[in-house]
Structure formats: C-alpha cells, structure tokens
Amino acid sequence: GKKKEVKGTFASGTEFKRSTTYTTGGYQQEEIKTEIWHYNCGDNDFVYALTFEDGIFVKEETPTRGYGKSKCISAREKSSKR
Fold this sequence. Notes:
The chain is mostly beta strands. The protein has one domain (2-80). The chain has one helix at 75-80; strands spanning 2-9, 15-22, 33-40, 46-53, 56-65. A 5-stranded antiparallel β-sheet has the order 1-2-3-4-5, with no helix packed on it. The longest helix has 6 residues, at 75-80. The chain starts with a strand and ends with a helix.
C-alpha cells in the first residue's frame, strides 16, 4: 500500500509524525502518534533522541554530539538530590 506521513514540531521543540497507510482493494487507515524528544547532554556527551509511538518508547538514537553545558541528570545524581 501507499504510505503518507505528516511531520511537524510542537512548540516545545518535540517532533511528531503521523502515518497513514492505504491499501488497494479496500481502505485501511492507521494513525500512530510519534514523538521524538531530544536531550542535549553537553560537550562531553551526545544529544539523545528518544522516540515514542503512541506513548510507548521504541528507540534511542544519538544523532549528534552534545554542545554547551549538560542539561542531563543521571539517576545517581537525581537520587542524591533527594
């Protein structure tokens, strides 16, 4: 079947993609809400892109090196702040 994708960016900077699938001999529509959240973990790390489909985590990518001061907190750092 043919596939049509709609992409955009929320005001928060979160990307989204909506996918619709069509089949011949009938009609089938499938919409999946896809969000990609980007986390810049600073100069000595990467930018992490976490992809969620319909609210379920599906993959993690590191599209580029991080830059500037890290805005990421490790689980260890988070638990020590409590």
